[in-house]
Amino acid sequence: MREKHSRPPISLQVKLSSIFIMASVLIFIVNIMLVIGINRMTGEMDSVYRDNIKLNELAMSIGEVQSSMTDYLNTKTTDSLEKYYKSEQDYNKLISELNNDVSGDSYDLMEKNIRNMSEEYLQTTGYAIEAKRGRNVEKYSSEYDKASRLYNYINTYINSLNKERFKSNSTNFKDLLTAFRFFETVTLIVMFGAALGSTLFVIGFTSSLMDPVRKLAKSADEVAKGNFEIETIPITSNDEIGVVTKTFNNMVVSIRQYIEQIKENMEYERNMQEKELRIEANLKEAQLKYLQTQINPHFLFNTLNAGAQLAMMEEAQRTYDYIQNTAEFFRYNVREGNTTVKLRDEINLIDHYIYILNVRFSGDIKYEKDIDESVIDVLMPSMILQPVVENSVNHGIKEMEGKGKITLRVYSKDDFVCISVKDNGIGMSVEMIDKVLSGKLREDEKPSPVGAHGIGMNNVINRIRLFTDSEDSVSIISEGENKGTEVIIKLSKE
Hints:
Helix content: 55-70%
Order of helices and strands: HHHHHHHHEHEEHEEHHEE
Oligomer: single chain
């Protein structure tokens, strides 16, 4: 039998990049097609009145010839003569572009007549100029009169042709304008369809990517609750998620087997001696609980580290950063005891926490820091700032659809180090602030829109007050509904 070769793994970075590239290419193609159509329509509209513009230029140019000829005949100056020759050249260039072919079209026939008369007109003006230069008064007067008559005839022809062209072009312009409006409607429909299609495509593709993650998260939650009888998760991909899923399945199976082994040992000892059986049973039970609480985080950290190393090898930098931040966050949370830590450790935890939230909510939470680095080695209880920030996110800015903002400030004031956590969310009423600070807000009390910040703060406030031995170590400031909330914690510098 032939050995089956497994497919090479496709990383998350490649899959997500493929989604972006395919959606971008679709939008780009649609835009190119629309731009080509708009340019073609615009070119047609620009060409509608081109004949009228040319006739207007022709009328202005012959006027310049007539004016410059008259000036020279009256003044006989070099400037007026140069002006005549220049205008005569310009007009001659314009009439050379007029129709000179015999056809049945009335417009072409009028253009041919204008061209013939213009050639005769320029010849007559030339005779008048030469007669003036030769001081032949009778001849230049005669030629001037003839040129003036031709000038009037030509102007009349140009005006007539211009009016006819304008009537015809106006009808064409209306037809083009109607077509352009129709094209504009079609353009909007096509762009909307392309945007909708791209959106549905991206949603469908990302949903297929995230489905294994949801299953993994649900199973991990069951394991965290102590339920090891869950079914193994099907592995549907060879990417980083597939690797993590396989490792998680192995972890669950290993723990399940280990628990079964412990149970068998306990049963064996129970059969040996009844008295020692009870002692041993209690001991094993305690060991079991201890192992469950120790193995799960330890194995989870190893799993996350393995995923981070794999993401780094796959050059999936964002996945690597996310796994690293998640590992650091859980490692900080599972430390034993209510330890005392430095303020810098709490700030680092907030950085990890905000990073994880922004990955979950697509960067909706704006986070700013203003930290005085000289005071961040002051000691404080652990897990104080994270519940405060969590309250700001869940009850202050969660429903603000990307407009929410958290500002963390650490500054020195007198003999204290002040820590400020401020949001721009729904705010709190004065009554609700008093309830929170006095500990009168019950856990089962339904939070109102103005007082939602209060839930979960009792523990933080009590621990800080016990640590600092001061009732004024925690304060809450809010100017009212929809004006944000600021929680300020004061620690002694000593």
